[in-house]
Amino acid sequence: MSKQRKPVRLAAVPVAPERDPRPPVEAIRAAAFAQFAERGYPVVTVRDIMKACGLTQGALYNHFKSKDELLHDIIASTQGELERVCQQAVAGAGDDPRAKLAAFVRVYVMRHCRLRVEALVANREISWLGAERVADIRRSRRAIRDILVTILTQGVERGVFDPPQVDGRRDLKAIAMALLDQCTHVSMWYGPGGELGEEQMAKLYADMALRAVGAKPQ
Amino acid sequence: MSKQRKPVRLAAVPVAPERDPRPPVEAIRAAAFAQFAERGYPVVTVRDIMKACGLTQGALYNHFKSKDELLHDIIASTQGELERVCQQAVAGAGDDPRAKLAAFVRVYVMRHCRLRVEALVANREISWLGAERVADIRRSRRAIRDILVTILTQGVERGVFDPPQVDGRRDLKAIAMALLDQCTHVSMWYGPGGELGEEQMAKLYADMALRAVGAKPQ
DNA sequence: GAAGCCCCTGAACGGCCATTCACTTTTGCC
DNA sequence: GGCAAAAGTGAATGGCCGTTCAGGGGCTTC
User: Fold this and answer.
1) Which residues on B lie below 8 Å from A188 (Cβ)?
2) Which of A51, B18, B111, B116 is deepest in the core (most CB within 10 A)?
3) What is the pLDDT of residue A21?
4) First-last CA distance in chain B
5) Which of the nucleotides lies closest to B54 (Cα–C1')?
6) pLDDT tens across B150-191, in order?
7) Is the CB of A14 under 7 A from strand D?
8) Residue B181 is nearest to which of A4, A131, A182, comparing CB atoms?
9) What is the band of A1 on the pLDDT scale with cuts at 50, 70, 90?
10) CA quadruple B7, B137, A10, A48: dihedral positive or negative?
11) Which of B41, B181, B190 would you mutate first to test chain A, the one with the most A CBs within 10 A?
């Protein structure tokens, strides 16, 4: 027993079985998202999701091929948007790798604070996707990592970054992963009630990242 | 469909239904651990676990009260050990906060590389524990975080750390969380086949942590 | 008003779940 | 050798799962 998952504290899932006024696909997506966030994909049933938006189980299959496809749909849209805003932030930050890194971290952290539940679902539930569907999510993650690796490489080449070395070698990929892990998991504990706001959090993380890679003063 | 979870690449779970030679409690723990790591708690059945160690479903309940208790048992031992080694590392590192921080990160990262599957299970599956059982795991996590906060506070007081500020204020708890997130999630991607070994990884992370908190040269 | 379409319902299907229990086997100890 | 206690069996219990599908409303378009 104990199929219950810790509640991620979220607007309580309404017991109200009233029909959601939005178009059904959207209503289903929203209900599924809320439930996945709160209880986790494997223990949320199709019946749960459909009840939450005032429909019956069978109706799901008029809009999605399967529960699996529904999850993919939810994660893919979050992830795609993330990739987009990261690219955009870096592109609009000018030519200095320091500015690029700061802009990247800033946007990434801001987004993981503001949309922390979305980020949480995208990161936590991805492992339940079937092998075929998980592939493009992973591709997008790798793409984001590569943006960061590129910035670091540029910074080193131009002599504005001096990241730590071990045994005389640098592993920029490892450093990029470390920074990403750090920024990603803000979404696991950040709450709007905390001491720092989103912008302040973003600034703190950008500072730490610049220090970690040994950015020369601008 | 698709109850499959991404394989975490692990010694393949033997199809062999031969009886595990170890004492049953231990065999069950080991089998459960391997399966949880590979496929995730909610989709691993009691039948799966018991078959993997050559017993039948019912026998589980001679050793554990429930599947939930089994999971707690596994996570709690990993977590307890982690807390212990962290305390030990800090205690044995002398008086300088820089040495303490380096020792802490070193041990923490080493452990998360070497026992990455254990760490992964402890971090990923904790949310399936019932409310009562999750409490002491969280307590231990908080204790580890507090070790780190204490080190940072000492370092600032003695003037050997100069961590980033936002709007003139410092949030040492946020910084501690950021460092912990970074170090914890090495276990999600580190593989022994990578460019850096465990010790090198630990050194890299210790370097980054010292830089992030603005440690003065020793 | 008929036809065609989209959407929804709710029963049905085949299957698996954690846990319990009456019963048998094995073990350790006198 | 005898006997309790411990450990294991496998069927049974009661329930939930994702998905399918025949049937039925209510649109729009002729």
Assistant:
1) 181
2) B111
3) 76
4) 58
5) D8
6) 999 999 999 999 999 999 999 999 999 999 999 999 999 999
7) no
8) A182
9) very low
10) positive
11) B181
Window 137-176 of B, Cβ < 8 Å to A: 164, 166-167, 169, 171, 173-175
Residues 6+ apart with CB under 8 A from A170: A156, A163, A164
All structural domains of chain B: 24-62 (1.10.10), 68-212 (1.10.357.10)
Distance CA B124, CA B44 (A): 14
Q: Helices A131-157 and A67-91 sit at what angle, rounded to 10 degrees? A: 10
pLDDT at B70 over 80: yes
pLDDT in tens, A51-81: 999 999 999 999 999 999 999 999 999 999 9
Measured over the CA atoms of residue A174, residue A179, residue A184 and residue A186, the dihedral's sign is positive
**DSSP for residue A169:** B
Q: Is A56 on the interface with B (CB under 8 A)?
A: no
pLDDT at A2: 40
Q: Say whether B6 and A205 touch across the interface (CB within 8 A).
A: no
Which positions in strand D are less than 7 Å from the protein's CB atoms? 6-12, 16-22
Looking at residues A109-124, what average pLDDT do you find? Answer: 96
Residue given tokens 């069978």 in the structure block:
A58
**One-letter amino acid for residue A102 of the chain:** A
pLDDT (mean) for B135-152: 97
User: Average per-residue pLDDT in chain B?
Assistant: 91
- A95 Cβ partners below 8 Å, 6+ apart? none
The predicted structure's pLDDT at residue A192: 87
As given in the structure block, the two tokens for residue B135 are 């409490």
The answer to whether strand C lies under 7 Å from the CB of residue A58 is yes
B66 touches strand D (CB under 7 A): no
pLDDT bin (cut points 50, 70, 90) of residue B215 is: very high
Residue B144 tokens read as: 């580890």
Question: Could you say which of A164, A167, A205 has the minimum Cβ distance to residue B208?
Answer: A164
- Is residue B12 packed enough to be buried (19+ CB in 10 Å), middle (13-18) or exposed (0-12)? exposed
Q: pLDDT value at position B17? A: 55
Residue with tokens 């949310």: B127
Write out pLDDT tens, residues A196-217.
Answer: 999 999 999 999 999 999 999 9
Asked if A5 lies within 8 A of B128 by C-beta distance, the reply is yes
